[in-house]
């Protein structure tokens, strides 16, 4: 299992995304946080920005939709050519139908769970998804502390993925740094979103390679 490190541009300089993307050229994917100020109490950007980001970076975009009504809006993000589009279980009306639509368009389909959302209803649905995002903070803001109480969800997901013989990526997002990445990797995560610990580092490149090594050394 290779550890993927996806820097979150929520922690980048919003006035200089193009040069910020160049600082994380060692990343596996670029994590793009779309927030609508309804599903979460924060507002970032929408479809035109995501489409433009894809034009200025060769890196695959890992789009995380923290928005209401993803059934209506998510397909548009897949149509920009995003590598993966992840929507929230709490917001979707028909998560399976939406995931199928995203895959049909050509994007990987991800489902995200807030810290208080149980994972059990989704375990048997795993074949419908390419990625599960376990939020390790309440979604909305960067720079928060990792919530270790979310780790049992990773264990349950990793067990089900192995039992069903699937290649579903297990992603964590929120408070990931050189300490917490080891905990999440041991619990079964293979894909790590990191905002402040990468963009806040003097050398994002070094931060990425350190995180990748630590995750690899502590993999499940
Ligand atoms: O989805 C997010 C917040 O909702 C961010 O991706 C996440 O919080 C990353 O920031 P940091 O690594 O600083 O916690």
From TrEMBL:
Family matches, as InterPro entries: Aldolase_TIM, Ribul_P_3_epim, Ribul_P_3_epim-like, RibuloseP-bd_barrel
EC number, as in UniProt: 5.1.3.1
Assigned GO CC terms: cytoplasm
Cofactor note: Binds 1 divalent metal cation per subunit.
Keywords: Carbohydrate metabolism, Cobalt, Isomerase, Manganese, Metal-binding, Zinc
Superkingdom of the organism of origin: Bacteria
Essential cofactor(s): Mn(2+); Co(2+); Zn(2+); Fe(2+)
Annotated residues for binding of a divalent metal cation: 31, 33, 64, 173
Reaction equations catalysed: D-ribulose 5-phosphate = D-xylulose 5-phosphate
Gene Ontology molecular function, alphabetical: D-ribulose-phosphate 3-epimerase activity; metal ion binding
The keyword Isomerase is annotated on this UniProt entry: yes
Residue stretches in coiled coil: none
GO biological process annotation, one example: pentose catabolic process
Pathway participation: Carbohydrate degradation
Catalytic site positions: 33, 173
Top-level class of the enzyme under EC nomenclature: isomerase
Sequence positions that bind substrate: 8, 64, 140-143, 173-175, 195-196
PANTHER family reported for this sequence: RIBULOSE-5-PHOSPHATE-3-EPIMERASE (PTHR11749)
Role according to the record: Catalyzes the reversible epimerization of D-ribulose 5-phosphate to D-xylulose 5-phosphate.
Similarity remark: Belongs to the ribulose-phosphate 3-epimerase family.
Protein name: Ribulose-phosphate 3-epimerase
Lineage: Bacteria, Bacillati, Actinomycetota, Actinomycetes, Micrococcales
């Amino acid at each position: 299992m290779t550890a993927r490190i996806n820097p979150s541009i929520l922690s980048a300089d919003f006035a200089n995304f193009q040069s910020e993307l160049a600082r994380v050229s060692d990343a596996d994917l670029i994590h793009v946080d779309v927030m609508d100020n309804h599903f979460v109490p924060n507002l970032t950007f929408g479809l035109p920005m995501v489409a433009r980001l894809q034009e200025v970076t060769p890196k695959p975009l890992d789009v995380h939709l923290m928005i209401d009504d993803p059934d209506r809006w998510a397909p548009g993000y897949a149509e920009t050519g995003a590598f993966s589009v992840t929507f929230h279980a709490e917001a979707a009306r028909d998560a399976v139908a939406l995931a199928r639509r995203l895959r049909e368009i050509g994007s990987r389909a991800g489902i995200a769970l807030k810290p208080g959302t149980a994972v059990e209803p989704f375990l048997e649905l795993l074949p419908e998804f390419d990625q599960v995002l376990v939020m390790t903070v309440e979604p909305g803001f960067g720079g928060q502390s990792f919530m270790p109480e979310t780790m049992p969800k990773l264990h349950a997901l990793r067990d089900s993925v192995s039992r069903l013989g699937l290649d579903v990526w297990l992603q964590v997002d929120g408070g990931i740094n050189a300490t917490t990445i080891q905990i999440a990797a041991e619990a079964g995560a293979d894909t790590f979103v990191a905002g402040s610990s990468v963009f806040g580092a003097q050398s994002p490149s070094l931060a990425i390679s350190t995180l990748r090594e630590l995750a690899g050394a502590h993999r499940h």
